[in-house]
Amino acid sequence: MTTSCCGQPRTDATEAPLPDDARTLRLHIAAMDCPTEEALLRRALADEPGILALRFDLIRRVLTVAHNGANEAAIQARIAATGMSAEPLSDQADSTPSSPPTGGWGRLGLAAVLALAAELLHWFTPALGWAPPLLALAAIGLAGLATWKKGWIALRHRSLNIHALMSVAVTGALLIGQWAEAAMVLVLFTLAERIEARSLGRAREAIRGLLDLAPDTARVRQDDGDWREVAAETVTIGSLLRVRPGERVPLDGEILSGQSALDESPITGEGLPRDKGPGDGVFAGTINQQGEFDYRTTRRADDTTLARIIHAVEEAQASRAPTQRLVDRFAAVYTPLVFALAIVTALAWPLFGGAWLEGLYRALVLLVIACPCALVISTPVTIVSGLAAAARAGILIKGGSFLEQGHRLTWLAFDKTGTLTEGKPRLHHWEAWEADDSGGRGEPLAGLALALAERSNHPVSRALAAALLKELTQERSEQRFEAGPMPESLIERPGLGVEASLGERRLWLGNRRLAAAHGVDATLLEARLASLEARCQSLVLLGEGNRPLALFAVNDPLKAGSREAVAALHRLGIQTLMLSGDNRHSVAAIAAEAGIDEARGELLPEDKLRLIEEKAANASIGMVGDGINDAPALARADIGFAMGGAGSDAAIETADVALMVDDPRKLPRFIALSRATRRVLIQNIAFAIAIKVLFLGLAFSGHATLWMAVFADMGASLLVVANGLRLLRQT
Q: How does pLDDT run across 361-411, given as a tens digit for each residue?
């Protein structure tokens, strides 16, 4: 068990995934926007038969109930008994209906005038003793009845939330004749709640902004050849869509005809448009800036890259970051402790020579101070603001814990191919190992290498296969190339290469470690390969038994932004490490060009895992890869970063942080955002606690009034929320 705002018990259902085999009921609860309401709802639904788990999305005001046949009408009735209404949502529906009306500002303004008049008359015209009570009751009737009602509902459910504490404090103030203060307390509290709700709305709009990127309709070609606007959610995979200049792309797909430039910043965070043509992929929510094009859909509306990003952000903001869990545990102790202190003060004050009314008044001030709303609400708002800012910048963070943990990183380890390099290797040249070697038995060496390379998924093998196929196709046109037999019994050796039988021959294609494993003399390899590797060339050997047949030199140039990214990381105090299965000379040369601190080459996946574990034993380390390869190292690192998440389902689903575009310069931006988030969290916690400690002292010294305590408590809430929202500008 953990606890929520104001010390109420809460299970960890928010953290845990909902059961796969459970039925779900999704409810939009307009009045549920802070842990106060969450705690009340948890109590109300605690003993409802059939409920398996609850998940609260306070930012979007959505409660998801996992159950195994519970009475859904009874669930809604229990929610209604708390004074909140629940609106069922379908799985496909937009789960952010319009916010509840925030009107009634005229009534609140009149109530404020009446409360202020009551306060002034109480102090300056005591002869009119009848006026302050009448004005105060009128002000309470205009602005405070809703708060009072919520408070008594909370007390009925044994919940010490802010409404319960405020209602007790106001009732006590009326009973001891502090009419004007009671009215001022309720008016200030209601005003602060309104302003706070508007402030929290900015965090909600940051999430809603993602939902609004994709258009609701799509222009689809019909069977009769006409183009018709239909609901995007009804479009099936394989449909033909048309997008005109200035329009947003409704669904993911592949361009069939037409040329254009698309603004992909909603997905990748990159401001410059990208030229697109036939064969290129497009993402839902991106903006067509120039020409008209037709494309075929590859995903449904609920499975687009944008939809998966939104889902990931929702899951991230629903989970509690470490600081938030710490604050919840603090609230569990703080609120009951101060509540008990208030009771002791009221009872014990007369025993020390004080008037009992004075003791009761100071106890009421303590009740107002007892709710740690400023402390509790500041953390989720700060985390959600940071997650939304990261999503705008094309950085998808899978949980508040990773956003918060990023400030601890002192090392970042990089895979080489596709991470710091372009990931598009090109064959520079190839040569026979022996000058007069044609491959033996009449087969050309290029044909043998192609047969093995095209069966491997490694980027270098794919580049080699593409270049050799082009070369041999040209030879075929000159009647000099005939396709050979297909390789059999192929074995992929991760980090080494491939082996296969080709006819009666057993061939291998891979790096120098694979050559050494087949008995090729290491001294011979070093003499032949060292000079080429020093030029940043990755070398692939074709061999049979212990005899090398051919040598292929492949280049994979450094990305344009790699040096800038590494330099920025160094300025942030982050040390860098390159881990690669490529030869150590090429790895060292690439690392030196990029400015990497340490480089290790000729590594198998288990070697990378071992090195990550060694670093992790003494420091916090992140691993940057493609989200698929190097899985053990990515999983073991404190934070796993996947490059190019916009084109990879696996990256979005499995990485802790997915960079939606292949740009390592996003990494220092993530570190900077994480550190800014940490600073704001510390500022908010320190400020909220300081305010509480200050007013505890003022309450005992007799210098704090009820309305001053409300002003300080709710003012602190507003300030920490505003401070957290500053992160929305960190893009």
A: 888 888 777 666 667 677 777 887 888 888 888 888 887 888 888 999 999
φ, ψ of residue 479 to 5 degrees: the values are 60, 35
Is residue 268 helix, strand or coil? helix
pLDDT tens-digit map of 1-40: 333 334 333 333 344 455 666 788 888 887 776 666 777 8
CA 81 remoteness from chain centre: 34
Dihedral sign for Cα 247, 248, 249, 250, please.
negative
Structure tokens at 128: 């009119």
Q: Beta strands of 388-513 (E only): which ranges? A: 395-397, 411-415, 426-432, 488-493, 497-502, 505-510
> What single letter denotes the amino acid at residue 407?
H
What gap in Å lies between CA 713 and CA 718, rounded to an integer?
A: 9
**What string of DSSP letters covers 297-330?**
E-S-GGGSHHHHHHHHHHHHHHSPPHHHHHHHHH
Q: To the nearest 5 percent, what fractions of the chain are helix, strand and coil?
A: 50, 20, 30
pTM over 0.90: no
Which residue in 263, 328, 415, 630 is the catalytic one? 415
d(CA 529, CA 526): 5
Element (H, E) at 278: none
Q: What percent of the chain has pLDDT over 70?
A: 80
Strands 2-3 and 657-659: unpaired
* Domains of the chain listed by start with CATH number: 2-89 (3.30.70.100), 105-207+313-386+675-729 (no CATH), 217-303 (2.70.150.10), 393-421+559-672 (3.40.50.1000), 426-555 (3.40.1110.10)
Top-ranked range on mean pLDDT: pick from 129-133, 409-413, 711-715: 409-413
Is-catalytic flag, 415?
yes
Q: Give Cα separations from 463 to 430, 532, 686 (angstroms).
A: 13, 18, 56
DSSP E strand stretches across 534-673: 537-544, 547-555, 575-579, 598-600, 621-625, 639-643, 657-659
- Rounded to whole angstroms, the Cα distance separating 693 from 695 reads 6
User: How many residues in total does the chain contain?
Assistant: 731
Distance CA 487, CA 448 (A): 9
**Rg of the chain on CA atoms, in Å:** 33
Tokens 């700060």 correspond to what residue? 382
Rounded to the nearest 5°, which phi and psi values hold at 3? Answer: -135, 160
The helix/strand/coil state of 32 is: coil
State the Cα–Cα distance between residues 580 and 692, nearest whole angstrom: 53
Pairing of strands 86-89, 488-493: unpaired
